[in-house]
From TrEMBL:
It comes from the Bacteria. The gene is trpB. Gene3D superfamilies: 3.40.50.1100. GO terms for cellular component: cytoplasm. This is Tryptophan synthase beta chain. It holds the Pfam family PALP. Belongs to the TrpB family. Pathway: Amino-acid biosynthesis; L-tryptophan biosynthesis; L-tryptophan from chorismate: step 5/5. The keyword Mitochondrion does not apply.
Amino acid sequence: MALRDAVGPYFGDFGGRFVPESLVAALDELDAAYREAAVDPEFQAELAGLHATYTGRPSIITDVPRFAEHAGGARILLKREDLNHTGSHKINNVLGQALLARKLGKTRLIAETGAGQHGVATATAAALFGMECVVYMGEVDTERQALNVARMRLLGAEVVAVKTGSRTLKDAINDALRDWVASVETTHYVLGTVAGPHPFPTMVRDFHKIIGEEARQQVLDLTGALPDIVTACIGGGSNAMGIFDAFLDDEGVELYGFEAGGEGIETGRHASSITLGRTGVLQGARSYLMQDEDGQTVESHSISAGLDYPAVGPEHAWLASIGRATYEPVTDVEAMEAFRLLTRTEGIIPAIESSHALAGALRLGRDRGPGTTILVSLSGRGDKDVATASRYFGILDEGASQL
């Protein structure tokens, strides 16, 4: 079986559906609706039409030679998901799920968000389709991503600051799941990554695989060959799974995911769930997650709110276990240096999440040298991270702390 044919609910030993009884019927209904929509020409045509006239697809490929001068002579190409409407890859999945919600007769969308990109995309789709919208966001993330909180509210969404646990993405997902249990008759939960119970990992991947399908053809058209390496940042793993999917069965193409190494994996303050995690169950699926000696989930850390999550999508866990993809940590320092380098050399301000993939590409380029082509998923733009980056680099003028 081709690797691209894996559809869940299990990917090897990972995935599944570990949920309260009250959600089983809703997940069965969603699974049936998705399988029907996946082969429905009318549904697919409506989604393609939205991507062409609203999202702005196809997103372009950008050659970045000045940035690549720092990568040992390798050629680096960026898949520009940052140019999508709402500023990231998240809109690909959200529009698909919003169409499904309408098909199911749901009138209310809920979502979790870390960096705010998924929340903004969900609030945007709710406005477009005339639906009520509630977004759960950890209190810590509402503070470091205040601009996106304002965007969601302007779009008409209610933003609920979650004050439990570490007050980050994991806790936002927990509260969104609690809401869904209580409101499933009218509400669709727009899960934002390739995690959670079946069918979310499969469905979210499928809505994002357009990233890899476009990029594969664009690189062939530009260079006459497939890239040697495809890279992406990994939190839950949605943008990575989207760009990896089209290359899974190309044996000559290496796949690299770069996790949040935070302050260094030796410090314990990181979000490297594949590098240092163990198999366990979190938020409806079996995957690799960060645990203590008693099997309790431990808190993650990353300068990037979008990667600050102690687990990973089950398909990534499977790809790591069979050796098809390689996953390595990138520290906050490495990511921020790549953030500054791309900004200064190419005039492109990336999301801090995406900067982990850029740092990984620099590392791989220096190792492999000239003649290597590396394709990077630039999953989001850095508008939302300007305040964080300005504080990190100490470039704010006195009195400008409210940026």
